[in-house]
Specification:
Layout lengths: L1 H14 L7 H10 L1 H33 L3
Length: 69
């Protein structure tokens, strides 16, 4: 049951459309228009996702190597 809850949490995190803009980026995006604003938001999300994925991989490897079986 715990594993199913973890999988559902991961799916929920990636299925929700996230808005990753600070106030300055939001004002810039509003001036650019709809298309470039979506591109700016996607770029911010990709830049934020990279270090989080690296941390998740390192955490999983640490957990896998140090668990008591």
């Amino acid at each position: 049951m715990k594993k199913i809850a973890q999988i559902l949490a991961i799916i929920l995190c990636f299925s929700v459309q996230a808005m990753a803009q600070c106030s300055l980026c939001t004002k810039t995006a509003q001036q650019l228009g709809e298309g470039p604003a979506k591109g700016l938001n996607n770029g911010i999300l990709m830049l934020a996702a990279t270090p989080l994925i690296i941390i998740a991989i390192l955490g999983f490897r640490y957990w896998r190597n140090n668990r008591t079986a």
